[in-house]
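hey so i finally got around to running the thing on that chain from the lab meeting. sorry it took forever, my laptop kept dying and i had to restart like 3 times. anyway pasting the input first so we r on the same page abt which one it is
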Amino acid sequence: MRITLCLSFLLSAALATNIKMNPLSDEFINHINSQQNDWKAGRNFDENMPISEIKKRMGARKSISKAKPTVHSKDIEIPESFDARTNWPECSSVIGSIADQSACGSCWAVSTTSAMSDRRCIASGGSLQVPVSAEDVLTCCTDTSCWLGCDGGSTQAAWNYWFQSGIVTGGRYNSSLGCKPYPFQPCDNWLEGKYVQCSTLSYDTPDCTRSCSSSGLNYRSELTYGKSMAEKFATVEDVQREILQNGPVTASFVLYEDFVNYKSGVYHYVDGDEIGGHSVRIIGWGVENNVAYWLVANSWNEDWGDDGLFKIRRGVDECSFEMEINAAQAKV
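ok and heres what got predicted. didnt touch it at all, straight out
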């Protein structure tokens, strides 16, 4: 009888350890924080939100075309820390802007056009501050790497499209900036937010229109261009030198359930299942508690994470973060 009870207890304990925690629960958040001290997890999403809602925003697709890695001169000195917002104060409002992709898997288009906007401003010495339109590339790029729109695309394809076809100007949702402002309203991931709940929204990719929604502007006159096809980079140091010279770049990485709970510190994977691929914009780097990191802008509005930003380990290809970093220079 005693042996039977003992076996029953051991079986129950084994089953209990295999029970999957809700990745948005306090239990899972506390579990992440108990496993390490490099970063802090906290509440960014309502606990009752289905993880499938977050998966809808995972729009990063792998590039199909090959890009020759760009190697920068080693004579360019790399500082220990760098922040594009403070390095180019004349463009700080552009570079410091945190996008909101809303309930659409447009991270690939939003992150890329945000970096394009940064680079146009920097290359023009601060005179070109009207953003590049995420809607234009989201809806009109018919390349095999980015035709899925809200269901995903490739940052490399978006950079290539900028060079080959051009992308018009366009600011945030409901703004009067540029030719084609973003079509989807900001949304919140939890009940105490200031916007409509993301879970109440569902978007199909809009049709491509080669005309301006803002009155008085001509589509062709508002086209912006890149100087070349997308560039990739041979080393981490080459990425840093590229940012130092030309401004923020895009990165696509594998996103896990623990990441959605990020609040501060230097992120690295702790626990949870893979959700999908996500594209973001790198605006700098630094070192925190002897851990090298990238400084990155997300596109889930400023209420997520550290005012819309996060840090992730640098130099170790954390979550494949350094596998697909792209950029192209702005033509001004």
